[in-house]
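Duplicate of #3305? Posting structure anyway:
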């Protein structure tokens, strides 16, 4: 039977412990160890079995236990200390506030950054995440809170979250979707706040929940309310569930509904950050509002929206981008187009590449690129891949200059580090190790080997116990008897070399790469003198049968009695299991097909815990691996060879698997087990590599570094640009829109007709005068910038390693052209070359290639 009315029953917390409720409802507890330990002490069983959720502890602990603790002066002191710590954390100025005092650029931030994402991984107790994207978003919010960045977040509340994973006896993944009760979680309903929007010919209403993540509010829109018909209540049923129309409805609610929620909450947003394309429709809502509220034309509203927008892409392959068919776009956005006075073809063009037919599906990433002036990939390599993927959006611009940057992901140290490693880094690097720079991290070169080994082994012991507990629990759930599961007591050994592979089970991540050479794998597992063990975990998307097949293969291998104590697959990968594995792993293994790993962050968590990374040079590892060769110092991990030039998939797999096994057999395993002449001593070579890993990676892999990069490189410039274009009734946006239209209409008349330079041999370090004859049509000199491009002449006469030199206007010529002059620096020996190009120039645009208009010398 279904309840006709419902109400929330609050736990009866004794007055001396009243602060427990406040502590439970600020998700800072998810990374504040004293607060977590406080709730765990109330009832360790409920804490462990209840997803480490303080609210569940308070709801389920017997009243007698709370009454007992209320009489305990030591416990009361712990509660008071935790509450005082939270108050201090929330009240004191942080990094951003100090930055604002010292840096005039920070004063441009008059509002907040609104961070939109389809998922947020804050804690296993708030299961609104599926994998890396969500966990990254959660770490972003936590670091923004620690840094004091004025940021709010917008997402959806999924009543069934992401699925819980179980396996059949033969290893096939099954999904179950538990019902989640927001009233029992660290969420607060925003009373009286409702947003409504049109979904085709229907109206959807959503309520808004607030999660408090330290200093950062996270607002989650929820369609599961009686005001909606049953089928619309299901819009927020599951994360990444349903068909393409269901996904479109979710993304409309996230983007358009999110903007409306922020307005209903009266939150002054200055910068809109779209984390992947799922929330991209927020840009369309902002365009409509500028037109209706501020009287801007469509083109002017587009400029105003782009100015304060940041778009982060996480997708390195076109197949991973959301695309919606024209028929659905017409059904759901005809009214929007009518409101904005444009056609459906005009709308579709926002999500199309140049020259694509109007019938092509609407590409959310293309729209994200068009509606944001600042764009980034999530690693240096992914930035290069993204520039290649989207280069055609800026015709005539060299791929290397495609205006997409990169900020490499990072991880929130306090969330992921073990207490032992936290203490060790605090005494070695400093209490503020999460904030420390490279100089402070140099201290780990003197890291005490005995203390490190003791700290890391403690985490490995916990990991082994956690894995055994899960293996036993899942075995019993499959109907196995206790006697059948006796082997679990001997599964894994804290003193064996432990290699972990845990992540989303997508095919490109190649979870079964080790299984491609089973004899070599069995030889590693069967070596009793140099024991090695592997732990696997991960979920495949419910619709991804290929990913499920990878899991089945790994599980089938793990069922062999000859290897099952040293090769295990752990079900139902979540943040709790991830924390256990990254803290206990000696080696974190990653085997993606390069360059399909945009960034990856699980390995970052492992290296902060003193583990070593072994991966294909993809994602963040491509820029962070130090080989130690050529006198550059010691290696900080291992790089698996990548054979991307091999087109035959099976041959490529064979080559890369050979590289992996070669590393394991000749480097990783021997280094870990090399104890010299004393079997009881520590492996000094291994310790040296751990120290180098911490020294080189520690200051880089943290989310504090990542968020500071976002602030300096994207948020503050976007905030300043939004102010510039919004002053005086959006005079800047109006001016820029008029300029863009005028330049686009005249650009066909802009050309470089002649380039003159003395081609005689020159001395290194001198300069060479270059002149250009340029036609500007009806454009003025101040409308453009004429640039001299200087570089080394490579194959086919192409310029390489180029430098741009602005050319000065030397006046008009008799035939209507203008003469421009510059000095080419001859700073390299060998064959140097020059060419000339013209780009638009406007004082409100930093990078002239933003316009996608380039007139090159020699172009027809």
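Output from current build:
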């Amino acid at each position: 039977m279904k309840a006709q009315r419902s109400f929330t029953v609050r736990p009866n917390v004794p007055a001396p412990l009243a602060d427990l409720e406040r502590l439970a409802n600020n998700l800072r507890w998810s990374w504040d160890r004293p607060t977590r330990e406080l709730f765990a002490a109330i009832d360790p069983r409920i804490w462990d079995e209840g997803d480490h959720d303080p609210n569940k502890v308070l709801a389920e602990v017997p009243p007698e236990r709370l009454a007992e603790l209320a009489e305990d002066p030591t416990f009361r002191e712990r509660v008071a200390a935790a509450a005082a710590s939270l108050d201090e954390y929330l009240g004191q100025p942080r990094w951003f506030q100090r930055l604002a005092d010292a840096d005039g650029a920070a004063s441009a931030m008059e509002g907040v950054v609104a961070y939109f994402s389809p998922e947020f991984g804050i804690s296993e107790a708030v299961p609104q995440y599926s994998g890396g994207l969500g966990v990254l978003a959660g770490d972003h919010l936590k670091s923004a809170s620690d840094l004091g960045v004025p940021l709010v977040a917008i997402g959806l509340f999924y009543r069934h979250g992401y699925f819980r994973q179980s396996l059949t006896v033969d290893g096939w993944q099954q999904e179950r979707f538990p019902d989640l009760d927001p009233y029992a979680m660290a969420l607060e309903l925003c009373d009286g706040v409702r947003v409504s929007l049109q979904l085709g010919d229907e109206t959807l209403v959503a309520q808004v929940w607030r999660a408090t993540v330290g200093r950062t509010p996270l607002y989650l829109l929820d369609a599961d309310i009686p005001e909606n018909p049953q089928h619309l209540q299901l819009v927020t049923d599951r994360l990444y569930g349903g068909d393409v129309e269901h996904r479109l409805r979710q993304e409309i609610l996230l983007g358009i509904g999110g903007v409306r929620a922020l307005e209903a909450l009266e939150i002054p947003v200055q910068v809109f950050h779209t984390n992947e394309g799922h929330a991209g429709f927020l840009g369309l809502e902002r365009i409509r509002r500028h037109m209706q509220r501020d009287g801007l034309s469509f083109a002017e509203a587009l400029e105003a929206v782009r100015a304060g927008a940041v778009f982060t892409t996480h997708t390195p392959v076109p197949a991973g981008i959301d695309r919606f068919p024209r028929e659905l776009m017409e059904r759901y956005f005809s009214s929007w187009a009518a409101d904005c006075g444009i056609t459906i073809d005009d709308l579709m063009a926002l999500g199309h590449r140049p020259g694509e037919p109007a019938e092509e599906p609407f590409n959310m990433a293309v729209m994200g690129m068009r509606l944001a002036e600042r764009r980034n990939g999530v690693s240096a390599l992914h930035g290069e891949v993204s520039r290649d993927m989207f280069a055609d959006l800026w015709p005539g611009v060299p791929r290397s200059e495609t205006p997409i940057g990169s900020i490499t992901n990072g991880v929130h140290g306090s969330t992921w580090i073990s207490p032992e490693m936290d203490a060790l880094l605090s005494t070695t690097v400093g209490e503020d190790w999460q904030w420390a720079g490279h100089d402070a991290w140099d201290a780990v070169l003197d890291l005490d080997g005995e203390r490190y080994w003791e700290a890391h082994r403690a985490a490995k012991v916990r990991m082994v116990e956690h894995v055994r507990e899960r293996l036993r629990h899942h075995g019993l759930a499959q109907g196995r008897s206790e006697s059948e599961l006796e082997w679990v007591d001997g599964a894994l050994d804290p003193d064996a070399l432990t290699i972990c592979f845990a992540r989303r089970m997508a095919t490109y991540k190649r979870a079964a790469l080790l299984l491609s050479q089973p004899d070599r794998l069995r030889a590693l597992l069967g070596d009793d003198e140099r024991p090695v063990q592997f732990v696997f975990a991960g979920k495949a998307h419910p619709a991804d049968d290929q990913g499920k097949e990878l899991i089945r293969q790994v599980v089938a291998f793990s069922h062999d009695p000859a290897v099952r104590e040293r090769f295990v697959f752990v079900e139902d990968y979540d943040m709790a299991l991830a924390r256990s594995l990254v803290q206990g792993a000696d080696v974190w293994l990653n085997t993606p097909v390069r360059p399909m790993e945009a960034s990856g962050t699980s390995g970052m968590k492992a290296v902060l815990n003193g583990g070593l990374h072994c991966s294909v040079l993809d994602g963040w590892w491509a820029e962070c691996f130090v080989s130690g060769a050529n006198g550059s110092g010691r290696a900080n991990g291992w790089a698996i060879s990548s054979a991307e030039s091999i087109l035959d998939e099976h041959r490529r797999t064979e080559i890369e698997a050979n590289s992996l096994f070669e590393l394991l057999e000749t480097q990783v395993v021997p280094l870990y087990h090399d104890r010299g002449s004393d079997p009881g001593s520590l492996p000094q070579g291994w310790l040296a590599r751990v120290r180098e890993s911490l020294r080189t990676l520690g200051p880089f892999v943290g989310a504090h570094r990542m968020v500071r990069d976002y602030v300096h490189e994207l948020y503050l410039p976007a905030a300043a640009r939004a102010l510039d274009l919004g002053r005086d009734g959006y005079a800047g946006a109006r001016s820029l829109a008029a300029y863009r239209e005028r330049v686009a209409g005249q650009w066909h008349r802009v050309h470089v007709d002649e380039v003159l330079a003395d081609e005689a041999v020159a001395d290194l370090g001198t300069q060479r005068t270059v002149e250009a004859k340029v036609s500007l049509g009806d454009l003025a000199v101040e409308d453009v910038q004429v640039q001299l491009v200087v570089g080394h002449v490579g194959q086919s006469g192409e310029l390489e390693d180029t430098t741009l030199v602005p050319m000065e206007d030397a006046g008009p010529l008799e035939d209507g052209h203008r003469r421009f002059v510059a000095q080419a620096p001859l700073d390299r020996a060998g064959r140097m070359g020059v060419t000339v190009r013209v780009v638009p120039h406007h004082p409100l645009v930093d990078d002239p290639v933003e316009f996608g208009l380039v007139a090159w010398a020699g172009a027809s």
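Confirmed duplicate; merging threads. The chain has four domains: 15-91, 95-409+711-725, 417-699, 750-856. Residues 15-91 form one domain.
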